[in-house]
Structures are given as structure tokens and as C-alpha cells.
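Shipment paperwork, digital attachment
Item: protein structure file
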Amino acid sequence: MKMLSRLLVFFCAWVAAAQMVSGATSGWVADYNQLLAKYATPSGVKYGAWKKNGADMQALQGVVDAIATEKVSGSKKEQLAFYLNAYNAWILHEALEKYPTSSVKDLLFTFFTSKRIKVAGQQTSFKAFEDDVIRAKFGEPRIHFALNCASGSCPPLQREAFEASKLEAQLENLAKGYVNSERGVKLSADGKTAQLSQIFEWYEGDFKNGGPVAFINQRRSKPIPKDAKISYQKYDWSLNEAK
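Attachment content:
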């Protein structure tokens, strides 16, 4: 009888541990995936249709409520997948709260700097969450093409949640897609000039082992020539709404 009780206790503990965060196995991820498939497009997010759908607004609220209380554990890939999903889900939530709007950015950038979101029990801002958690903890430059800031120059929002088992492929696909688009790199026909996204200027230090151009050329179908003059595009902060 005592042995049976011990086995039962062990089993319950194992089940509880298995239910902790493992990147994309939490219940809210299924709802988040459905919402992304419905409203995220290659050209932007269908904010208008989403805002009109009360059930889907409530579903997104459920997603961020779960993210707010989630306990972070598991491998580094599982943790990073969770944090990327958390950032993007909260961006969508806050952009929809502000909608209709032409841009989430305000004069003093308070949309990004005020403590308006909660992740794993911590009240924080988008900027602090990105800089002090995602960038500082993982040192992964490709996160800059996975995070979406609800603006025109941002990399497109991925239409599925990040998952630990697919994270390497997801990050690489997003990075390749961005640097091969004009949003990421505008290369002149003669190859003499290249206008890069300001992401590469703002976060230059994150692109180690050769800097932004080396990172880009590892992934571009048409590499930037070594002697090309580099400048940066003006960032488009208009809302990334699907047209």
C-alpha cells in the first residue's frame, strides 16, 4: 500500500513537471496559432477584422493572460520560443487595444518603454523585455527578424507560433526572408550602394563574426559587394495593417 502511494506521488509530480512551459506545448499556443493563421498575412495583420470579432479578441486576451502567469522552464530553445511568442502576442494585444490607429509609436515611444505587459509574473515594457531578457539571455541575432513591432519596416509577423522543435528553421527562414527583401536590403542595380534596414544600425553589436553585412551575405541570394557604400533606410513606423 505504501509502495502504491509513493508511486502515485511520483506520477503526480511527473505530470506536474511535464505541464510546465516547454516552448509551444502550453494550452494557449493552440489558440494563438489559430489567431495567427486567421489574421496574420504576408502583407500585414488584419486588425480591423480582428477588432470586430469579439470572440477572437477574447481569445487573444486569454493568450496574454496565460503568458502573464506562465512559469518558464525547459531548454534554452523552449524558453526562447516562449519569449518570442510572448513578445509578439502582447504586441498584437496592445496594437488592437489602440486600434484604429495609424501607428503604435507615440512621440516619446511610451508604447515600447512603459511597463504595459506581464510575462511569467514580471511586469515589464517591450523594450526592457527585448533588451534585458531576449537579447541579453540568448545572444541570438536572428531574434530581430522574429520579433514584430506592429510597424511597416518590421519583419513580417510569422503565421505560426514558435516551437522549440522547429525554432532553428523558423529563425533561419525569417532571417533569410528579411535580408532578401527590400524591407531588409535595397541593393542598387550596379551593386555600388546598399540601403539596409535600421535594425542593422540600431543593433549592429548583436551581429558578431563580421557584422551586419557578413550576416546578410551568408543569407542573400545576391550578396552585397565588399566595396558597396552602406546607408540605412528610414524606419517606417506606420501600422503594419494588411491592405
